[in-house]
């Protein structure tokens, strides 16, 4: 009997050894695969800055405007906002001739800064280096920029002088300010000076113009005129995606969902009814349900970013009238109830979740992403609708990116054999002109202000903020539909220049195979089975270390 057991044991060991070898061989083959062919269609991709295990998320939070399925149609919605602001400025005394301007969606991009002293629109990198400078609709050349900004550099934290235009709502505001500057430059009645325009004893400073534009933006939002026009033609201004109810219903199967919007209840209700209005439920053949049923908690009048700090009083909303009920709400979470105000701490208490168990999905770098990340430790998903166009250019114009890289390599090759003893000074004037021309051609593929995320090979301020504060980002939150809720979003390795430009030493492949075999054997002993585990543990330390 003992010999039979011994034979079985030997056979098992032999089969185990064969299986280990097969698994190790499979691992090596996987490592040799070109992973570009394993990725999803880029239209459906979610991109990763910090690793996130989706199965650890217990709660999904949404902003509404521009976030929940990237609600507003562009450029129709920006055109509406621009026209309302222009009309208001004229009603307050600005020249009637301004009404001749029409919105041009190819000019503005997010992430620009207004210099309220000189009236310029600036695209900068994360350090404050100026990448692009426009005065009205005229783009300044290098020498002109140097006259106003020594070293082509600004102090980004001088918030009294520089105002950042980071949100999608800022697009119309950006274009309106450029129109005002352009108008007064061309108007013969006014004389241009360093900080504004003169007409007799009157002086209009760039700072005053900026404040007038800001006041106008506040007016169209606070007065409700923008919302009224939007609700008057929802099909024109709001995109409706039939996949949205499907996404939320699947999310609710694995966790809780909340909505936190700065909009009031009446507007929120109208938009959400339109988004979820269909003849059936989330699946064909199921009954239609109210949009409220997709959320465990609905919170309006959030007043973000204040919401992520001390917050405001939590009150109940009368969903029949849209009015707030008197008194502060202090009770438990109630099904079907809509709340007003509150704070992020209250959301955690009401839903019974904590920081890193929440994935918050929004479009506002500061109001949604930065504050929820730094103050609460929530995991963050930034919706970047422009990413669809950015990716289209990136893929269709790959020739230009390759040409720019080749020019950089050509310059490096010229200097390759020169050192500090060399008196030779290579003439790279022509190459620098070529680099400038290719960079400009690339930028124009995106729009007149260039890409949201880069200028040639240099990243913009917006790009650096996106990479720092957003764990995940995509053109739409709908892209989460294309991933299982057990998915591990794994951040790609970020190489430093000394790593990305220096080749690894040649590896002895036979030695590597031996190491892989040993690792596989150890894995079998540890796991107690013959299955290879591909699941990596989630690591959040990168963000914590960065914040420290």
From TrEMBL:
Metal-binding in keyword set: yes
Location of the region described as Disordered in the Swiss-Prot/TrEMBL record: 1-26, 526-548
Residues binding GMP: 65
Top-rank taxon: Eukaryota
Cofactor stoichiometry and binding remark: Binds 1 Mg(2+) ion per subunit.
GO MF annotation terms: 5'-nucleotidase activity; metal ion binding
Biased composition (Acidic residues): 539-548
Family matches, as InterPro entries: HAD-like_sf, HAD-SF_hydro_IG_5-nucl, HAD_sf, Pur_nucleotidase
Entry protein name: 5'-nucleotidase
Record-level GO BP terms: GMP metabolic process
Protein residues bound to Mg(2+): 63
TM stretches of this protein: none
Cofactor(s) recorded in Swiss-Prot or TrEMBL: Mg(2+)
Entry keyword annotation includes tRNA processing: no
Family statement drawn from the similarity comment of this UniProt entry: Belongs to the 5'(3')-deoxyribonucleotidase family.
UniProt keyword annotations, A-Z: Hydrolase, Magnesium, Metal-binding
Residues annotated as the enzyme's active site: 63, 65
């Amino acid at each position: 009997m003992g010999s039979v057991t011994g034979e079985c044991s030997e056979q098992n060991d032999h089969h185990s050894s064969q299986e280990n070898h097969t698994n190790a061989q499979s691992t090596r083959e996987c490592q040799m695969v070109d992973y570009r062919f394993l990725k999803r269609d880029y239209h459906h991709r979610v991109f990763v800055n910090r690793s996130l295990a989706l199965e650890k998320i217990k709660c999904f939070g949404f902003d509404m405007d521009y976030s929940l399925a990237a609600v507003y149609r562009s450029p129709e919605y920006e055109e509406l906002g621009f026209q309302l602001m222009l009309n208001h400025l004229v009603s307050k005394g600005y020249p009637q001739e301004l009404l001749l301007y029409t919105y041009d969606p190819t000019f503005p991009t997010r992430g620009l800064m207004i210099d309220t002293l000189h009236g310029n629109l600036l695209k900068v990198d994360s350090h404050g280096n100026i990448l692009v400078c426009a005065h009205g609709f005229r783009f300044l050349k290098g020498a002109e920029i140097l006259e106003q900004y020594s070293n082509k550099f600004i102090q980004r934290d001088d918030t009294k002088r520089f105002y950042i235009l980071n949100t999608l709502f800022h697009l119309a505001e950006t274009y309106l300010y450029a129109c005002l500057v352009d108008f007064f430059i061309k108007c013969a009645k006014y004389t241009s000076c360093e900080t504004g325009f003169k007409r007799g004893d009157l002086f209009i400073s760039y700072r005053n113009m900026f404040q007038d534009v800001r006041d106008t933006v506040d007016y169209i939002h606070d007065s409700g005129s923008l919302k009224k026009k939007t609700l008057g033609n929802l099909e024109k201004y709001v995109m409706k995606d039939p996949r949205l109810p499907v996404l939320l219903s699947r999310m609710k199967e694995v966790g809780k969902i909340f909505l936190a919007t700065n909009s009031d209840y009446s507007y929120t209700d109208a938009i959400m009814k339109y988004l979820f209005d269909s003849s059936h439920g989330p699946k064909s053949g199921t009954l239609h349900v109210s949009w409220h049923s997709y959320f465990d908690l609905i919170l309006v009048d959030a007043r973000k970013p204040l919401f992520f700090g001390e917050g405001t009083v939590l009150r109940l909303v009368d969903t029949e009238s849209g009015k707030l009920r008197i008194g502060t709400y202090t009770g438990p979470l109630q099904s079907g109830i809509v709340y007003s105000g509150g704070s992020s701490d209250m959301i955690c208490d009401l839903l019974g979740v904590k920081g890193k168990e929440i994935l918050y999905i929004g479009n506002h770098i500061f109001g949604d992403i930065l504050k929820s990340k730094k103050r609460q430790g929530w995991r963050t998903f930034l919706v970047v609708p422009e990413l669809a166009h950015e990716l289209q250019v990136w893929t269709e114009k790959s020739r230009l990116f390759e040409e720019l890289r080749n020019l950089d390599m050509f310059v490096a090759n010229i200097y390759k054999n020169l050192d500090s003893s060399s008196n030779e000074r290579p003439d790279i004037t022509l190459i620098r002109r070529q680099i400038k021309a290719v960079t400009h051609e690339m930028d124009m593929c995106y729009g007149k202000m260039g890409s949201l995320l880069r200028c040639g090979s240099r990243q913009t301020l917006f790009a650096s903020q996106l990479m720092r504060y957003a764990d995940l980002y995509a053109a739409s939150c709908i892209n989460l539909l294309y991933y299982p809720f057990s998915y591990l979003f794994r951040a790609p390795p970020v190489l430093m220049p000394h790593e990305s430009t220096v080749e690894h030493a040649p590896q002895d492949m036979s030695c590597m195979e031996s190491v892989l075999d040993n690792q596989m054997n150890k894995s079998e002993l540890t796991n107690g089975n013959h299955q290879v585990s591909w699941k990596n543990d989630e690591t959040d330390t990168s963000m914590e270390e960065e914040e420290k």
